[in-house]
Write a structure and sequence with these properties.
The complex is a heterodimer of chains A (about 110) and B (about 110). In chain A, about 0% of the residues lie in helices and about 60% in strands. Chain A is mainly β. In chain A, strand 4 and strand 5 form a beta hairpin. With about 110 residues, chain B is mostly beta strands. Classes of the chains: A mainly beta (about 110), B mainly beta (about 110).
Chain lengths: ~110, ~110
């Protein structure tokens, strides 16, 4: 079992739909990242969370430390949101702050 | 704002050759991380440096070595390249002065071994 699991692996939506991507982890963490990776490969950090909820534009990220679960929501989705979304965690017990990544969720938003 | 810079962006090598990847962190960032992402795979941590000293080591092959220099840039040296080394290599940087120690990623170097 992976330390970080995401669902769904693939998601297709129509423009305007509300999207949720889930991330569960099995280790104690000090922080959780939501990352976006476009086909060219570059990774952009969307959020870093250690508790609660963050919002940036149409993106909302929440984390429940007790349940070891985080969600990324996209409101009013748009074709330009099509990308791979990756959840990554920084473990509490780890020195050096390495990140452990989930397998990513491929999101396709159709016009 | 300045971001993490990686060079080269693309690199093609033959088997058994060597390659050097460079990473220039965000100014005033003291920590550099290297990750490897194989085709269709999630990134895997290789190694990290804090203040020019190795701070953590992951699944980095013995054929690879890395260091961080006095200007905080880092180089990943890869020798005896194998076909399986073909991957996207990301560098990230962070600052321990930032209480969250958030990592910021470079654009990656795509290495193709033929």
């Amino acid at each position: 079992k992976n330390e970080v699991e995401q669902s769904p692996q693939n998601l297709t939506a129509q423009e305007g739909e509300f999207i949720t991507i889930n991330c569960s982890y099995s280790v104690g963490i000090s922080a959780l990242h939501w990352l976006q990776q476009h086909p060219g490969g570059g990774i952009v950090s969307l959020f870093m969370l250690s508790s609660g909820k963050k919002k940036h534009g149409r993106l909302i990220a929440t984390i429940n430390i007790q349940e070891k679960h985080s969600s990324l929501h996209i409101t009013a989705s748009h074709p330009r949101d099509s990308a791979v979304y990756i959840c990554a965690v920084r473990g509490r017990e780890t020195s050096g702050s390495r990140l452990t990544f989930g397998e990513g969720t491929q999101l396709t938003v159709n016009p | 704002a300045a971001g993490v810079i990686q060079s080269p962006r693309h690199l093609i090598k033959e088997k058994r050759e060597t390659a050097t990847l460079k990473c220039y962190p965000i100014p005033r960032h003291d920590t550099v991380y290297w990750y490897q992402q194989g085709p269709g795979q999630d990134p895997q941590f290789l190694i990290s440096f804090y203040e020019k000293m190795q701070s953590d080591k992951g699944s980095i092959p013995d054929r690879f070595s890395a260091q961080q220099f006095s200007d905080y840039h880092s180089e990943l040296n890869m020798s005896s390249l194998e076909l399986g080394d073909s991957a996207l290599y990301f560098c990230a940087s962070s600052s321990r002065d930032n209480s969250y120690n958030e990592q910021f990623f470079g654009p990656g170097t795509r290495l193709t071994v033929l």
